[in-house]
Write a structure and sequence with these properties.
single chain; 404 residues; alpha/beta; 16 helices; 11% strand
Length: 404
Amino acid sequence: MIGLAESRPASDANCHEARQSQLAGPPAERPKPMSAVPVQNDTLLRALLRQPTEYTPVWLMRQAGRYLPEYRATRERAGSFLALAKTPELACEVTLQPLERYPLDAAILFSDILTVPDAMGLGLYFADGEGPRFERPVRDEADVARLAAPDPEVELRYVLDAVRTIRDALAGRVPLIGFSGSPWTLACYMVEGAGSSDFRQVKTMLYRRPELMHRLLEVTADAVAAYLNAQIAAGSQAVMIFDTWGGTLADGHYQKFSLGYMQRVLAELRLEREEAGKAVRVPSIVFTKGGGLWLEQMAACGCDAVGLDWTVNLGQARAAIGSRCALQGNLDPMVLMADPGQIQGEAVKTLESFGLPQAGAGHVFNLGHGISQFTPPESVTVLVETVHAYSGEMRRRGAGASSP
């Protein structure tokens, strides 16, 4: 275990104290989690549920990452990405780091989408310069037959401990988002054994052995549903399904092999939990990179919000599905490489594209994909401040225009 300096940052100290309180005494004697504390800034949750907000909430996919020097320092202390992700106190520390810099409206659990197949026994590891890999990819009937949904409280306990530690350390400051990869996206990594440029192995299985692919996706969907339910029980206040590779599928196959299994996951989720002594809704977000063709079908899958990548026109998306679910997105992450004035202009264009939120419409500002590791940290300051200020002004102008 890593030694902790006495002059630890605030996020580090909060996570350490939260974790120590969890570990003190037998389970029956441990303090109640901070889920008993009302969330102070619930703007994100209200936007996802299409309720009125004073401004447009903002968080960023991959907001805790390599663009932050403090993250890189913690990652170096941990020794490896997996050690960082599998140590609840350190996962908490990096989850809170962007909140110490920026007035973001949500924290997102620091973890990896490949925790589920790793818990299925596929042997996740990270090769230098090559990204994630599996020692035992799933290639044939026998491999699929060996798969079983893991028990989240056993094989994935470190993730749930991280959720509980983060909730305690947040102390109701902002909501915590839990997440998982989609069944199809996980299957891509499980069959390919790593990332891929052409998805040859997984698509060969899909076309040659569709029934085998369906069996793989069924067990993976059940594993994802159990994992997300466990995150909700541990304290996640919203959940997101990342369908990174759904957009690689042909029309027709996307519906069968990706969207259909996300719908199966959503149908199994228990999207309600007790917060501050009352039952509250846990909103769900579905994001398919490259999924603009299927927005209306995604909106009908049972989610509360649809995430959009930067190739989608936000105003057109609102016209098509904005009365059925909230929208999340969708600034091109590379905008953050531009000058401050250009970042402000692009953020304003995104907000204007969605337009003034009205009853039954909700917008969460985000990037159209994860933030680049090369992003200047000060660019995020410009973005977040612009979104908050301009979206608030839009609402004030709208209220003034509607006054008698």
